[in-house]
Amino acid sequence: MKSNDIVTIEKKLGYAFKNKALLERAFTHSSVTRDAQKNYESLEFLGDSILDFVVAKRLMEENPDAHEGALTHRRAEIVSQEPLEKAVDRLGIAAFLIVGKGENVDNITLHTKVKSNMFEAVVGAIYLDSGSMDEAERFILSKLRDHFDGSYKHGDSKDFKTELNEYASKRKIKVKYRLVEQTGASHDPRFTVEVSLDGKAMGKGTASSKKGAEQLAASEAIASVNAK
Q: Which residue, of 71, 80, 172, 227, has the greatest Cβ tally within 10 A?
């Protein structure tokens, strides 16, 4: 990566790296190398966990009496691929992605997932370079500030499981939740739960707790039945 590109990127990010090689790694696509120490994939993994924590912390600070389901649902909205893609677009950093020979950076960065991965990789790189969660948090909240403008109040969100149960009870429909998958380390698990109405799968959700996953699954099911 050219030195002038590094200067430009740092200005866009609002953070100056002490270790420039770490910045370059955060912008190195796996098409360049599969070496885990030279592409951004493990940085993305780290950044994803930091992002979840920082967003959860801010949501709890803004809505201290919110129930878990509402917080889980809102966090999932904020850390999904589309908001992260938009943040990368606003920063104007996608063009600096380093790709392998024969690959076209414009074609690769057309994918929403690639841009969201870039955002997470930058978060991970900033944390490692600074050794400070505060720096990572500052970056995340400044780049996703539109989602923390105080407009979201948990009172606007319902307990989706309760809402789905009320819907089912009125129609004498049986609601059943099923744990589909559990992944991740013991300190950072991910649960995927599916909800069915009278045996028909109607929604699925993934979260760091079973209750949170059930809330997301119920939310999806409610959206499905309301769309009919």
A: 71
Q: What is the largest CA-CA distance in the chain?
A: 66
What is the reported pTM?
A: 0.70
CB 203: neighbour CB atoms within 10 A? 23
> Which domain, by its residues, includes 106?
3-154
Which of 24, 120, 129, 194 does the annotation list as catalytic? 120
Question: CA angle, corner 32, sides to 27 and 98, nearest 5?
Answer: 35
Please say if 24 is a catalytic residue: no
CA–CA separation, 214 and 191 (whole Å): 9
Measured CA to CA, the distance from residue 121 to residue 88 in angstroms comes to: 11
Query: Among 21, 32, 145, 24, which Cα is nearest to 78's?
Result: 145
Q: Are residues 136 and 170 in the same domain?
A: no
Q: pLDDT higher for 112 or 150? A: 112
Catalytic residue among 41, 48, 85, 194: 48
- Whether 120 is a known active-site residue: answer yes
